[in-house]
Amino acid sequence: MVEMVLVLIQHNLDKLKESREKKSRSSEKQNEEISTCLAIHDNLIRELEKIMIQFSDVLGPSIFERMQKIFTILKHVNMDDYFVARHLIHKVLVLLGENILFTQ
Question: 3-state SS string over 33-50?
Answer without folding.
Answer: HHHHHHHHHHHHHHHHHH
